[in-house]
Amino acid sequence: MILLISDLHLEEQRPDITRAFLTLLDGRARAAESLYILGDFFEAWIGDDAMSPFQLSICKALRALSDSGTQVFLMHGNRDFMVGKAFCKAAGCTLLKDPSVVQLNGEPVLLMHGDSLCTRDEAYMRMRRYLRNPMTLWVLRHLPLGTRHKLARKLRNESRAQTRMKANDIVDVTPEEIPRIMAQYGVRTLIHGHTHRPAIHKLQVGNDAAKRIVLGDWDRQGWALQVDEQGFQLAAFDFVPVPALIH
Q1: CATH assignment at residue 187
Q2: Which pLDDT score is estimated for 240?
């Protein structure tokens, strides 16, 4: 059994999401062969050298899962593209390139975060190319911590404001891009996150039937894709409520 998740946007201000993730690690993920996290695992990441106590606790939880025998794979998202080798080594996980082809249930499957599929959002694509440039990343990693914190807040606020102003089709994937990239990588299954629109879409790639599976974001509930002998099963699950304190 293999699990795939994305878009948890983990942060200290959302203990309900953190608790749900840790519950997954202690439960279903322990029985899994592999856990794939397809980006936006953290709400923000300003460098491996700036791990907060909260982020360090998540790192240790991933390490415990890895040490238990479950392989852990992590892909960059648009919020945590500065996660580096030091974090992955400490967490016992493997950093995946975006995109990557892996074998799931005996077939090649294309894994992506999904933001690079939103090609109609030209302003975002320009910013993405700039921020992912190796020289830009080097400069960002060497800025003072205070400057990085301020820059991260600025980028998050601008992203939220711009997303609210853009039409829905602009911030979703470009339909024509899906069969193009699937044909390029020779796959009939694509799995990605980013858009926060969980669904399984059927489509054609050339003359072949294909599918695109969109993972859900964790907010009011969690989402996980389970791959096993039954196939690909995408399902939501409720967060366990915090017991009320008795005064």
Answers
A1: 3.60.21.10
A2: 78
